[in-house]
Amino acid sequence: MSLLVTEIFHSIQGESTHAGWPCVFVRLTGCNLRCRWCDTSYAYEGGSKMSADEVLRRINALGINALDTPAPGLIEFTGGEPLLQAEAVDLVNRLAASGRRVLVETNGSLDISVLAPEVVAIVDMKGPSSDQSGRMDLANLDRLRARDELKFVIAHRGDYAHMLALLPRIDTARNVVNASPLFGELPPAELAEWILEDGLPVRLNLQQHKHIWPPETRGV
What we know:
The structure is a single chain. By secondary structure, this protein is α/β, with parallel strands linked by helices. The protein has a single domain, classed as Aldolase class I (TIM Barrel). It has 6 helices and 9 strands, in the order E-E-E-H-E-H-E-E-H-E-H-E-H-E-H. It has helices at residues 52-61, 86-97, 140-143, 157-166, 188-198, 208-212, and strands at 3-12, 22-28, 48-50, 74-78, 101-106, 120-124, 149-154, 177-181, 203-204. It has a 9-stranded mixed β-sheet with strand order 3-1-2-4-5-6-7-8-9. Helix 2 (86-97) links the parallel strand 4 (74-78) and strand 5. The longest helix has 12 residues, at 86-97.
C-alpha cells in the first residue's frame, strides 16, 4: 500500500482560519478536475510512491511530531485531490485519531464523509470561472461537520453570485465560509467591498503565501 506524493514541505499556512500558522503540507499527486485557474497543475501527474510510514517519518522530520504542546503543529493534505487516494484517507484519519491537527483541502467533487470527525475538511466549492462548477458534489454542504470550512474562489461577479446562491444552504455560524479573490485577477479590495455592501457572514481569504513569496514559488 502506498501513496503517490508530489511534495512534502514545511511552510506557513496561507489560507482558511488557520492562516499564518506553521504547517507541514503533504501534496498528493492526481486530480479529477481541471480548473481553468489551477495553480498546482504540476501535481496532476508524476509524483513518487511513498508508504504511509515514509510519509509519517517525513512529517516528523520536519518537526510536526509533538502532541503535548499548547498548539501542536498543523498538517495539511492537499493536492491534486487527496480524497482520490484511499491510502491517504486512511493515513489522515489515523493521524487525526492520534491527536494531530490535520486539515484536508479537497476540491468539492468527492464525498467528504470518508474523513474522520477529528479531521478538518476545507471544501473548495468551484465557481463558474473554474469551468468545473458542474462537477461539485453539493451534498457535501449537508455533510459538513462542526469544524469544517468552505472556500469559494472568486474571479468575477458570476463567481460571487454562485457563492450567494449557496450561502442559504450553509450554517455560517458553524462552518466558516472563506471568500478568496482569484490572485492577480480580482483585486482583494473589490471583493471586500462586495462583502461589506451585502453584509455577508463570510471571511475574506487572502493567499498569504503568495504575498510572502513570489506566487509561482513551489514548496511554500
